[in-house]
Amino acid sequence: MSEAATCTIAGTDQKSGWMQKLNGPWHQYALWIYTAIVLGHWAEHLAQATQIYWLGWPVPESRGVLGLWFPALVTSEALHYGYALIMLVSFWILRKGFVGQSYRWWMVAFWIQFWHHIEHAMLQAQVLFHHNLFGSPIPLSLAQLLVPRVELHLFYNTAVFVPMVIAMFYHMFPMPGEEAHQDCSCAWYPRVARA
Q: Is the dihedral of CA 183, 189, 194, 195 positive or negative?
C-alpha cells in the first residue's frame, strides 16, 4: 500500500474514529453506561408509581426518589425533554453496533422513542411559548388527552425498554451467522443452530 493511501486511511480513521470505536471496541461499555442511565430513569418512574398507588400519596407530592430532594427534576419540562433527546440520540449513535435481529429490535425502540421525544418537544414548546394546548392549565401532550401523565410515561418507558432489552439480548446472543458481522465484543457466545 502506498504512503498516500495509508495517510488517507489514517485520516479517515481519525475523523470518524470515535464513532467507529463507540460501535466497535467501546460498544459494550457504551451500552452498559446507557443501560445504567435508562435503569436509573426507570427506577424514578417506578418509585413515583409506588408513591401514588401503594403509599397513596397525591400525584403532585409523588416525585420519585431524587424529586423529593430536588422537585425541579420532576417539574422541569426542559429536563424531561433533555432526557428524551439524549435517549433518542444515543439510540441513533449506538445503532451501528447492532446487526440482524438485534438491529431490527433496536430500531423499533428508536422509533417509539422518536415519538416519545415528539411528545416531550410539544410539552417543552408549550412551556417556552406560555401557551398550553386546548386551554389546559398545564402543558399537555397529545397522548395525555387519553391517558394521565404518570401512567402515560410508564407506558412509554415500557414500550421503549422492552424492544431495547430484546435488541440487547439478540446482540449478546446473536443468531447463527450474525455474530460474524459484529465489530464489538458484546456477544457472550453465539447461539447454536438447531438441527
A: positive
